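S1.2 Input.
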Amino acid sequence: MGDMLSLADHRRRPSRVGFSRGELQRILNLYSRRVASGEWRDYAIDHLDHMAAFSVFRHAFDRPLFTIAKRRGSGTVDFLLYGSGRKLTHSRSIDDVLAALEARPRPVS
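S1.3 Output.
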């Protein structure tokens, strides 16, 4: 008889997407500045099969004000910015997406 093989060892595992340390550091730098100014108060990080998302909130019980997503497609990685339930911008660079978020008008208090 032959050796027994486990199919689980040979199945393709789903690739998880996450933010790298440098990407997360850039996002958290922006987040901390906005928290210090009183605009943002909470955040959440979600991991899905082919996407990671960093969402910021004004209040913990609200919908997210903005979501920065990292999505893996067919061999490429894209960063997206969502706000008010719609896509605001996308780029292959996290810096471009964060610059677009910095350029958005801020509420006056």
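S1.4 Remarks. The CA atoms of residues 1 and 109 lie 77 Å apart.
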